[in-house]
Amino acid sequence: MGKIVSIHSFRGGTGKSNTTANLASQVAMTGKRVGVVDTDIQSPGIHVLFGLDETSMGKTLNDFLYGKCEIAEVAYPVGDYAAAAKESAPGRAQLAGKDLFLIPSSIRGREISRVLREGYDVGRLNEGFQTLIQNINLDYLFIDTHPGLNEETLLSIAISDILLLILRPDNQDFQGTAVTVDIARSLDVSNLLLMVNKAVPNKYTYENLKTQIETAYKAPLTGILPLSFDMADNASKDIFSLRYPDHDWSKELRKVAQAVMDTN
Amino acid sequence: MAGVFDRLQRQIEDKQKDGGITALDLADLTPALRKIMRLMLRQLQMNYPQLCDAMDKMAEAERLSRADLDQSLGMLTQQAWLTRLGEGPKAIYKVNLRPKAGSTLASGIWSSLDDKLKK
């Protein structure tokens, strides 16, 4: 059975969607079959990294949640259209022919407001996850979550084989991550991994920060990714780690991807 | 005229609407109950022999005895956190997750937002 990897952070702005897209891409590049679900239904965004917009996006996760279609109908095969981005997004273009599927959430205002107004069937969301793994024969299903704790986030934590928590070296993040770690433990999450993002370069000694974080949360720190102007300049237009494989951010990201793949 | 199956199906659906478990409730369960619920969340539905088989495959320290499994299933079904379809060894168990509630904001806010989004 394929593994569910939930990517979460207690606070917003940690780079969760960018990290998820890059991790999923790196894993897909190794030949694995990978799905990415955007469960940040209130503020979706990961589709941008995979080159989708409102006009190119047809049915979405929202349609599935309201019974308008099957989950497989909203799984966009990124590998089928990635080559077209050779000029504009050469990183993403490398995914051509790879088995990477994106399940986006709607970016139409009325559909987002419907979710907020009416709620939705959480059981159907879970059925969607499990059906995707079986029907598309996925090795990994990455779930990009909404920051903080809400219904879909807690569900994704509860069903995940691997939970990757992202935090910045920031006191608010440290406290919030402690809350999430407690909840993950109370839900018996099998494998809890940590990743630091947006660390000011040359400010932290890798080993010191690693010891500090691993002691505090009793979970392995898989990578310390630097705060990067290059990353900001990329502006979610491309899969950064594929476009700039020799960048420090990309090198650390690959360590995290390897840790995910090494986790049983 | 609705058949027996339709009526039963409606009864099950009505029961599901009444309750259901939230992901946060899982954290408050005993380890044994949580183990079953997490397994069921991943498998979507299982019959009793499949559940027994899954238990047998677990590490000895994690495994539930048949008596504990039976008791746990009874408790989870009674709370309507698991739905049982059928009886006896062929009964199928499914998780009953509580739907995410909609907003409690005044409905006027949403119709006003909808009107704006139509433009």
Description:
The complex is a heterodimer of chains A (264) and B (119). Chain A contains 13 helices and eight strands. Chain A has an eight-stranded mixed beta sheet, with helices on both faces. In chain A, strand 6, helix 9 and strand 7 form a beta-alpha-beta unit. In chain A, helix 1 packs across helix 13. Chain A is globular, with a radius of gyration of 17 Å. The mean pLDDT of chain A is 95. Helix content of chain B is 58%, strand content 9%. Chain B has a three-stranded antiparallel beta sheet. Chain B has a single domain, classed as Arc Repressor Mutant, subunit A (Orthogonal Bundle), CATH 1.10.10. In chain B, strand 2 and strand 3 form a beta hairpin. The relative contact order of chain B is 0.15. Chain B is elongated and about 60 Å long. At the A-B interface, helix 6, helix 7 and helix 8 of A face helix 2, helix 3 and helix 6 of B.
What is the CATH H-level superfamily of chain A? P-loop containing nucleotide triphosphate hydrolases
Oligomeric state of shown chains: heterodimer
Give the overall pLDDT of chain B as a whole number.
Answer: 84
> Count the helices of chain A. How many?
13
How many angstroms does the end-to-end distance of chain B come to? 44 Å
> Strand percentage of chain B, roughly?
5-15%
Furnish the topology, listing elements before pairings:
The complex is a heterodimer of chains A (264) and B (119).
Chain A: E1 3-8, H1 16-29, E2 34-38, H2 46-49, H3 61-65, E3 76-77, H4 78-81, H5 90-93, E4 100-103, H6 109-118, H7 122-135, E5 140-144, H8 151-159, E6 162-167, H9 171-186, E7 191-199, H10 206-217, E8 221-226, H11 229-234, H12 240-243, H13 248-262
Parallel strand pairs in A: 1-5, 1-6, 2-4, 2-5, 6-7, 7-8
Antiparallel strand pairs in A: 3-4
Chain B: H1 4-18, H2 23-28, H3 31-43, E1 45-47, H4 48-57, H5 66-78, E2 82-85, E3 92-95, H6 107-118
Antiparallel strand pairs in B: 1-3, 2-3
